[in-house]
Amino acid sequence: MNLQTLITDLQLKTYTQTADLENIIPSGGYASDLLSCVMAGAKPGNLWVTVQSHLNIVAVAALTECCAILISEAAEPDAEVIARANEQGVPLLGSSQGSYQLVAALSQRGIN
Amino acid sequence: MMNNPPHPNARRGRTVTDQDAREISRVEELSYELKVGEVMTANVKSVTAEMKIAGVLEILRQGRISGVPVLDAGGEIIGILSIEDVVRAMERNHLTAPVSEYMSHRLITVSDFDSVVKAIKTFSEYRVGRLPVLNEQGKLTGIITKGDVTRGILNALQKDYKEEELRRYRASHLFEDITSDRTSLILRYEIAAKDYQRGGEASSHIKRALLRLGASPQLARQCGIAIYEAEINLIIHTDNGGVIRVQIEPHRILMQTTDTGPGIANIEQALTPGWSTATQEARNMGFGAGMGLVNIRRCVNRMELDSTPGKGTKLTMEILLRPEERFREEGDPEAE
């Protein structure tokens, strides 16, 4: 399932201006708020679910080549985070749901 | 994917790669960056309202163009006459009629300082194929068609591509082009303590540099992860920040971080997965999982940690490149 479909289906916010979200298909998912765990565990192309919304998540996602970051619990990234994500080409998504609900919903849609 | 109807804009028949996606978004970017004035056709032919259609037909034919703006005596644009208008006149056998009788009075224009995207939107909104371009004073300076937009964007893309190719070529042949008994490239980054905001910046730069030099994506990722953890350690744990030094050689990558304190009291404990002395502030941001050094060890061939409490810490990480990963040196046989 591609990112655009997920965004529509799960009513996610998109903070960044990434073109062609239809053509990004997550290779799987990873959920953690501990950045080192993400560095160790996230695989290239993974959709990363986290409650963290500060600037470092963009670097972590870029270094691990995550296909997007999904910020849970309505944590809003500030303008600088969004700017950096645009610059690095990391789509930033958001939802008011908790990480557990999001992961469950993603898993139901075949993202494991 | 089953309930997923194809997007109307989806390109059929082949998978869009990351590279494609990057290029597509670059086209979008360019349509915002490029100005109408840069891609339009300047010095356009124009006609007057009093001219006969037959005369215009000749101008269109000779210039191989499909429409001309109509100007009044003062040089102001008052309409546009397209080939379709001429055809209408021909159907009525009315080629002797003046331009004013058949021209379109509906004036949809763009400014030469508008982004190309404005022109694209205007084309589709009004279903027109050409737009007169006016300057700030409202005078006609050119005409823009969809063909001009395509050509302009393709030219800009080609220029981009050539520049990038050249940069890549130069960087990836660095070790080949320089003759010495031992060539190494040293990258140095100064990292400030508690500067969480910039955490990961140096590692991103290092990863990009390695890709530029022709490293495989896996190798660049591996170095990126190791150096990220070391960078974060400098940010969250040191008193005065520290220095990252990366030495790239054809056969290995040696990465070192040094700082001036506080030093690690118990190195064995520091290397235990899950052990961390990070502050609550750092933990709230998701740092301090106690996995940093563990991650580093997983990514490198050799890791050494020397530390003296009160003096500082030196972390050495070495990645030995497998023969197929090595950067090409002068005299190496051409790769396949």
User: Main beta sheet of chain B: strand number and arrangement?
Assistant: 5 strands, antiparallel
Task: Provide the CATH superfamily of the largest domain in chain B.
Answer: Histidine kinase-like ATPase, C-terminal domain
Computed Rg of chain B: 32 Å
Structural class designation of chain A: alpha/beta
Explain what this protein looks like in three dimensions.
- The complex is a heterodimer of chains A (112) and B (336).
- Chain A is of the alpha/beta class.
- In chain A, helix 4 links the parallel strand 4 and strand 5.
- Chain A is 38% helix and 16% strand.
- Chain A is globular.
- Chain A has helices at 3-9, 35-41, 56-64, 79-88, 99-108, and strands at 13-14, 28-31, 46-50, 68-71, 92-94.
- By secondary structure, chain B is of the alpha+beta class.
- Chain B is built from 13 helices and 12 strands.
- In chain B, the strands form 3 sheets. Chain B has a 5-stranded antiparallel sheet with strand order 8-9-10-12-11, covered by helices on one side.
- Chain B is elongated.
- The two termini of chain B are 39 Å apart.
- The model of chain B is unreliable at 1-13 (pLDDT under 50).
- Chains A and B meet through helix 2 and helix 3 of A and helix 1, helix 9, helix 10 and helix 13 of B.
Essential attributes:
heterodimer, A: 112 residues, alpha/beta, Udp-n-acetylmuramoylalanyl-d-glutamate--2,6- Diaminopimelate Ligase, Chain: A, domain 1, 5-stranded mixed sheet, 38% helix, globular, B: 336 residues, alpha+beta, CBS-domain, Heat Shock Protein 90, 2 domains, 5-stranded antiparallel sheet, 4-stranded mixed sheet, 40% helix, disordered N terminus
